[in-house]
Design brief:
Strand content: 25-35%
Largest sheet: 6 strands, antiparallel, barrel
CATH topology of one domain: Elongation Factor Tu (Ef-tu), domain 3
Low-confidence stretches: 1-7, 21-29
Distance between the termini: 29 Å
Number of strands: 14
CATH superfamily of one domain: Efflux pump adaptor protein, beta barrel domain
Order of helices and strands: HHEEEEEHHEEEEEHEEEE
Shape: elongated
Strand order of the largest sheet: 1-10-13-12-11-14
Structural class: alpha+beta
Radius of gyration: 32 Å
Mean pLDDT: 90
CATH architecture of one domain: Beta Barrel
Length: about 260
Amino acid sequence: MNPTPLSQLGRTLPAALFAAILSVAAPQARAAEYPAMLDWSGRVTLTLPVSGVLQSVAARAGQSVKKGELLANLDSGLFKSGVAEARADMDRLSQEQADATRDLERVSELYARTVASTTELDAARLRHARASSGLAAAQARVERARQLLADSELRAPFDALVLQRHAEPGLVITSQCKPAAVLSVARSDQLLARTRLDAAQARALKLGDAAEVVLAENSLKSQVSAISASPDHHYEIEVTIPRIAGMLPGDSVMLRLY
């Protein structure tokens, strides 16, 4: 028995019911299947932005780490000394600024009583402005020293899986040149399904289109997350999916695009 064509159903069924059938059937009719391969999501090589001697590398290849977890750090002695020096300078300038404030208040009061001259008032104002400017600069130096200390520690940028360990303690990191790689990580909660299409296949695709990734008994619904053009006029399609047991980068999957 041949199935009834949709065109005939449209003449025999109520309009609302026919529209509901079309809404279910249409995405399935538009689905196109392409072979794809799983890859890491968010893969990045981590380095340290400041120079120093690598003191420790806590992470190992294959280890899962949480966002913010310490992975490696430089010898922090020099950076801690920088923070202490900047704080001492800030404390001194804070005292000078407080003294200049008191002096300005005193001279302003005397000027209001016509005891101090305009020249004395201007001098007190200038001293106060210089002291305030110096204190602001010292506070900025403290923040910079603290940031350098923080940058001497390498922390996980997100919940990640450590893919490779490139460095060992004792390595000299030079930030002025291309800094040495310390670790390579990828997101621990996501994978990418990638396929390569020609212009005709990719023409109707857009970001956010419905997609489905199928591997054996696993079927994960998602959306098109990236469409990258290559110099040879092909297009790499990426679909982001949750990382679940039984799926690993390098697995061949079927990608359904709607």
